Structures are given as structure tokens and as C-alpha cells.
Amino acid sequence: MAPKITVIGSMNMDLVTEVERPPKPGETIRGQRFYFHPGGKGANQAVAAARLGADVTMIGCVGDDIFGDQLIDNLRQKNVNTEHIQVIKGKSSGTAQITVKHESNSIIVVPGANNEVSAAYVASLEAVITQSDVVLLQLEIPLSTVMAAAKIAHDHGILVILNPAPFQRLSPELIDLIDYLTPNELEYDDLMKNARSRELAKKLIVTKGKRGAQYFDGERLATVPTYNVEVVDTTGAGDAFNGALAYCLAKNKPLDTAIHFANAVGALSVKRHGAQEGMPTLEEVQLFLRREE
């Protein structure tokens, strides 16, 4: 049976410009390529898990514009359940302006309808959430909504993963409700400025790009190496990792096994353009892992 994952989070249209270098203040430069495609951390992670074979439900909001229609239709095509996506009248859909320079990217997010994902709406979907094996959250929707979703899941004994991006200060109450936090290195540094390490040690999985991921194995910080691949576009690599981690943990895999698998999914995702288009299938991941053994 396919694991059931509920993703509560953002949906954006990504507007991507490839450049040799970013412009200086006041400078106009010539870009190399422009394109747009569906994104948003919530939607990206939903697609990543669905591509691996999970039964994924997306909860979130889009605007009543052409981007909103495209975002919902895209998720349907990628086998994500869109029944619980709200269309907010008079609001624009979320957008992300992404500048890609060689192997790195910088992103400006305009939340739009993502700010309308309310705690009340999440509470109205408690019956949906409680059918999940894993609830996957990020911070591109209101923090009060993240808190409400985490509490519902925690109260029903459902595993909760929070990808704390873009970073916001997390209350001790929210941290107590989370099973795993998956910051990158910058987010980890910010997180540790505002929280006691003992509270977090057993919950942290820190993604470190080319240097793999670190987690606390009960005795020490353990590093799980990643894979050396040709990088085309790093957009969505962290989301690929999170979707894959949720998939494996929903299948009751050991944490170290889940992180190894998630590293492979993240590595494969950067070999293609686009966050969601780069998400590999389960068959592709299995073939890749066999070749790497």
C-alpha cells in the first residue's frame, strides 16, 4: 500500500532567469534564459513524494488568476490530490523570482494567496490530516497555520516533518510538536541562535549540499554522504530531499536509510532544469543507487 503523505504549504509560479552573474545595484545586465514553471516548497515536496509512489494530498491556497489554474492542473497531472486546495478570490497566486547562476540560485518569494492558508482552514481538514502517515510542513505559509497543523498531527500520533524555510524563529511549543526538523546550513545557524541544542539534537537533519546531511544517531552527529553528479539546476534540491525523506519514513524505514535515499533523490533532482520537473521517479532512484553500489 502506498504511504499517505499530507503536505500543507505553499504553491508558487517560479519565474526563472539564468545569468552569468547577478546584477549590481542600479545595473542592467543581459540574461541568458528565462522560463517559468510551477514551484513553491509545499508543491515541490508534494510532487517529489508523489513521483516516488506516495499517496499525496496537498493543502494550500492559490489565487483566482491564470497561475492558480496552472498550479492546480500541474499537481493533478503529477498525481497529487488537489481536492483541498482553496482558490482565493481577489488574490494573486504566489510567485518566486529565481536567479540561477551556474550551480547556485537566489530567490525572492511573493507569498500572495499562500498567506491565506489559515489555521481555521487546516482545522476544518482534521479528518484528512489524521489519515496521513506523515505530515510535511514548511514556512512559506503563516506560522500560526504551521502550528495548528503540527498540533493536529501530533495529537493523533502522526509523524511531523518541518522544513524550516524560509527561516523564522520557532517557538519551543512548535518545536515540541515536530518529530524532525530539516534545515540547511544557513537555517541551522539561525535556528541554533534561538533554541537550546538539547531540545533539537534528536530532531535535526541538516542538509549540507555537496557534503551530504547530518543527523544525531543517539550518540554523535553522523554524516551521510551524498553523490557526485553533474549539476544543472539546484532549484528544488532541498524539496526533493524532504519529499523523499517523508516517503521513506512513511514506509517505516530506519532514519539513516531514509537519509541515504533522500540524498540520492536530491542528487538526481539537480541534473535537470526546474524544481518539479527535476524530481525523479522511484525506478530512476533505484537504478541510480544500484549503479552507485
From TrEMBL:
Task: Provide the catalytic activity annotation.
Answer: D-ribose + ATP = D-ribose 5-phosphate + ADP + H(+)
> Which InterPro entries does the protein's record reference?
Carboh/pur_kinase_PfkB_CS (IPR002173), PfkB_dom (IPR011611), Ribo/fructo_kinase (IPR002139), Ribokinase (IPR011877), Ribokinase-like (IPR029056)
Domain of life, per lineage: Bacteria
Q: What is its main location?
A: cytoplasm
**Location of the active site:** D239 (proton acceptor)
Q: What does the entry report regarding how activity is regulated?
A: Activated by a monovalent cation that binds near, but not in, the active site. The most likely occupant of the site in vivo is potassium. Ion binding induces a conformational change that may alter substrate affinity.
Q: Tell me, what does this protein do in biology?
A: Catalyzes the phosphorylation of ribose at O-5 in a reaction requiring ATP and magnesium. The resulting D-ribose-5-phosphate can then be used either for sythesis of nucleotides, histidine, and tryptophan, or as a component of the pentose phosphate pathway.
Q: What is this protein called?
A: Ribokinase
Protein species of origin: Pullulanibacillus camelliae
